[in-house]
Amino acid sequence: MSMDDEDLSRFSMLDLFRMETREQMRVLTDGLLQLEQGAADAAMLESMMRAAHSVKGAAAIVGLDPALRLAHAMEDVLVAAQEGRTQLDPDAVDVLLGAVDLLQQLADLPESDAGGADTPHGARLAELLAALAELRGSPRTAAPKAPPAPRPPPAPPAPPAPPTAAAIPAPPAPTPAPAPAPAPAPAPVASAAPAIAPATGSDELATLAGQARLHAGQLRPWIASLQRYKRHQRGVFEALDQLQDAIRTMGDPHLAELAQLVADRAAPLRDDLHRTIRDAENYERQALNVSTRLADEVLALRMCRFADGVHGLPRMVRDLARGLGKDVRVEIDGADTLVDRAVLARMEAPLNQLLRNAVDHGMEHPDERVAAGKPAHGTIRLQARHRGGMLALEVADDGGGVDPERIRAAAVRRQVAAPAFAPELSQAELMEFLFLPGFSLKDSANEISGRGVGLDVVQEAVRRLNGTVRVDSTLGAGFRTVITLPLTQSIVRALVVDVAGEAYALPIARVERVLRVPAADVLTLQGRQYITVGDTGEQLGLVAAGQVLELGETLAGADLALVAIGTGRERYGLVVDAVHGEQSLTVQPLEPTFGKLRDVAAAALLDDGTPVLILDVPDLVMSIGRLLDTGAALRLGLQAGPAGGASARRVLVVDDSLTVREMQRKLLAARGYHVDVALDGVDGWNQLRAADYDLVITDIDMPRLDGIGLLERIRHDPRLARLPVMIVSYKDRPEDRTRGLEAGADYYLAKGAFHDATLLDAVRDLIGMAHGETTT
Amino acid sequence: MKHLPIQEWNEDACWRRIGVSGDRSCPELAQHVHCRNCPVYAGAAQRNLQRPVDAAYREAWARELARPEPPPVHTDAAALAFRVGREWLAVPAALAVEVAPLAPMHRLPHRSHDALLGIVNVGGRLLPGVSLARLMDVDTEGVPPPLGRHAFARLLVLALGAHRYALPVDEVHGVLRHTTGAMRPPAANIGRAPSPLVAGMIADSAIEAALLDTAQLQPQLEALLR
Question: Is the same domain home to B214 and B106?
Fold first, then answer.
């Protein structure tokens, strides 16, 4: 991690020392690991020596005497190794790694404690200094001659778990606890923290960049309106030409002169508009281009190199393997692959777990490996690459692998697979069992026991990030885990739906399928609704999204829009008002404001700038389960069959004239619509708030609240904002029409031109037939 | 300000009789099209501007101008005044970070029953929307629109502590400068409300408003978020 582009002036000297130590300790750790594997050359030794030397100098500047002495001793050992005076065998590497850990801990001590000789680190320091002096002084041979502090205590940092280690459900939290105890806590992973700290400042940047792109996108409709204006203008010019021709035929010189004047004055308008449109289009293109690049760059800010997030893992594997008497190396492939910091931070624990599993349960002991014709040292390959717009992480070891037949047997024994079906299961299907919680077979002590340990945790973590995980194994040749994740958590591909009149989004990875079923197909059992899905015969329980989210009663129309979520037994058909389709949403976290909101993961903005809540599907499925357990039916407000009045489309007629009201009511009712009437705007508003309507037909001139006022209230109400509204009025001047349409009416019908067919046609165009297909 | 005398106009205003403001029968119109292009009109204007003023007129103005200017009121604080329903309220101006156009609120699941209206997009940022009317029990039903001016409903964005809140208000008046010492306590029945949010009444020449108590408002708003 480079510090060059950060403003360093705000850090204290000690802060700077900590940063430098962290950097240099990484160099040392990497070098020591390579050294142990025999891959280090003179240049590597040189850079390690320089790293120790730099820390020594820096420690002198901040006056941290213990760190100075330790770094000095390390430097001496490394110089000795360089000059060939000493051999660095695994035991020596242990000592040096122990010194690296201690140096890091010393640097991380709070300022007040720094340098205190009586710190709990004092004893440890003395030990290490002695061991280092030993290393430097005595030219060691491959066979260590029982040194006074053979491997002081720096032994394996991780407790060497018993081979049946089903007992580690999650990786022992790699706390950077400055453990005074001899065994240094496995700090390496924690030391990566600064590299992958969630970037909060860039949240705001991402939000602003997203907004800029949104604004640029909104220029398009504006330009479209200019184009419409241009068409109107063309019409006006044509009419003007005709007028001029007519006047010319009449031969009145005065009129002809006036007409010429109009034509002359109008002539430049055409070019002006043309130019304006061209300029606007240019502007739009630039704005869109710049804002898109801005958004991309901001996104890139949130990325870091894969290696920066996982550099602690090789050390962890080395220590763990050494504790178990195994020899395991980690190869990182795709170190430069760019990964979202937030994703990497949340993948740390799962990767840790997978590597532990590989070392603990996958890798054989060196003699077994040699016997099997494999190299004595095992290799775990950790790979990151971009594939098809996704991030693919792969952890592959060349250990013993898993015997699928044992999984088969275990699945039957554990009663998770029926004996009759078990022989039919493919290898891929068998591997899926490893993800079941508790499927680790600790009661049978064979080599696959433990292989599934924590895999359910890994899967859960991956699913939380909207990713998938797959495992694969060849008996005797290795085990492979492939994790596929979205490149970033800042943008989520989601299905946008309406619930109770407002937009909600479900991450597309969580949506099993989307269905549209006639309300008549809904069956009821014990007061709970379900449908039978046609092609599979599966029974899918229905839950009303509005009720799960406590947004109020849902009244279903003739068709139900269903989104199937959840897996296995916890699968539900979430009934929503409408499905709008798939969209990429720029995520805005809500946690800083609200803490964890039930069932909601985050928020975002739709293209038109309205907020949308992104649902937390696993949370939602749990909520549904809990609600059902407590006896809530989460039922839809379903009405009787299509013959019944209420499943027809509901229309509200608002008019202060009894005659008009009744005429409209009869006309619409005759066509099967369910019609309610209201006497004026206020009455209409109250009825609208009390029930769900598909259409409002309103007059303009009414007491208390006129049609325009009613319309404005409707358009400002989040639930009703999209309700179609038709105005039927005696006012048929163009300005009245414009006023009505500007206030948000979907249709304006003049009572003068009013007859039955026009009204019915207009209603049909707006909301469809009384019982027909939904048009929304 | 009191009305000062204005001199009567006693010339023949032909433009009102036969000109563009009259029946347009003036023959000069054919040439000048509009009275303002006509020399008769220009001449009348000249005479009007140069007419002698009488003693009473001069006297009245002399008296008016001789009056000492009222001493400036020393104000030491500023508040942003706005209206919710019929009530004029104010918050310290430093808290009001933005006045934004009204935007649709998105309700929050499981949270629909209190003064928390939901989230709203203010300049690309999603902020919690809070109804002051519900928080303070203000009656918003049947409030007639104000006479003689246009009232625009707005979102008032307040920065309180670590959070920002968007409060829909019916109208924003503007900045009200006042003197902290001159703040009057609210009526006794208001001060004893279960959650008294009003610190006191402040006023300038144009308006009187109830200044909200930040120390009370902040915890109440924060409680809504939890």
Answer: yes
